[in-house]
Amino acid sequence: MRYLVLLLLLFSHPVIYAQNAHALNKNAAYTVKLNGNSYDVYKAANKGQDVQLYWKNDKGTILKTLGNLKAYTATKHKKLLFAANAGMYTTENAPKGLYIENYKTLRKIDLKQGPATNFYMQPNGVFYSTASGAHIATTQAYTKQKEKVKYATQSGPMLVIDGAINKTFAKGSANINIRNAVGIDENGNVFLVISEGLVNFYDLATLFKEKLHCNNALFLDGGISRSYIPDLQRMDNDGDFGVMVGVTE
């Protein structure tokens, strides 16, 4: 009986943690199930101050893989708690659209309306951080903000805009894929999410709105998306990316 109780506590812990994690003022990794879909979630508290964007190492070599990012952060004496690809990129593994790293604009913002790809699905948006914390805004709204930006990556489409699901999404859409995204709640917590299976945009947006209570959320990429979340025993180390996002201790 004692061993049975221990096993129940062990395997029920993630569920309990997931139920309470949103209210806790600390980082948390957990799995959420909604409408038949499962998502791995990493919540970065402290207004996302531990969240950084990465593209190249100190020698100017593109990192490309989550394994390389882990090794790179280790050279900085930092422990990598979460990592994923963080936006679309060109065939040269260069950021598609705006990219800012350590206050330096390395790629300019893309204000075009087409062609008809995920990146240009309107409205698209920017995930960025300033001294006041992490933010997500539509691309047009971002151009009007005045704070000095430390990190920024542009992607699209926006999933949730000021508390509303993007009107271009269709409930029950057959446009499904593995997808990863980022959202921010009213307390400034950053939620980095990757689906465990194939999902459409509407269902992914619903997760951010109804379960994670994010007023704004931005799609990052799909299909090729990978994630490193050691707290969930998810240890993806591969990839062939441009920009990546990392949370370090």
What does this structure look like?
The chain has helices spanning 2-21, 66-75, 139-142, 201-211, and strands at residues 28-34, 37-44, 51-54, 80-85, 99-101, 104-107, 125-130, 133-138, 151-155, 158-161, 164-165, 179-185, 190-195, 214-222, 227-229, 234-235, 244-248. It contains four helices and 17 strands. The protein is globular, with a radius of gyration of 17 Å. It starts with a helix and ends with a strand. The relative contact order is 0.23. The protein is α+β, with helices and mostly antiparallel strands and 249 residues long. The strands form three sheets. A seven-stranded antiparallel beta sheet has the order 1-2-13-12-14-10-11. The model is unreliable at 1-17 (pLDDT under 50). It has one domain (30-248).
TL;DR?
The protein is an alpha+beta fold and 249 residues long. 18% of the residues lie in helices and 35% in strands.
Low-confidence stretches: 1-17
Main β sheet profile: 7 strands, antiparallel
Please state the average pLDDT score.
92
Rg, alpha carbons: 17 Å
Helical coverage, percent range: 10-25%
Compute the number of strand runs: 17
| SS-derived structural category | alpha+beta
Spell out the blueprint of helices and strands:
Layout: H1 2-21, E1 28-34, E2 37-44, E3 51-54, H2 66-75, E4 80-85, E5 99-101, E6 104-107, E7 125-130, E8 133-138, H3 139-142, E9 151-155, E10 158-161, E11 164-165, E12 179-185, E13 190-195, H4 201-211, E14 214-222, E15 227-229, E16 234-235, E17 244-248
Antiparallel strand pairs: 1-2, 2-13, 3-17, 4-15, 4-17, 5-6, 5-9, 7-8, 7-9, 10-11, 10-14, 12-13, 12-14, 15-16
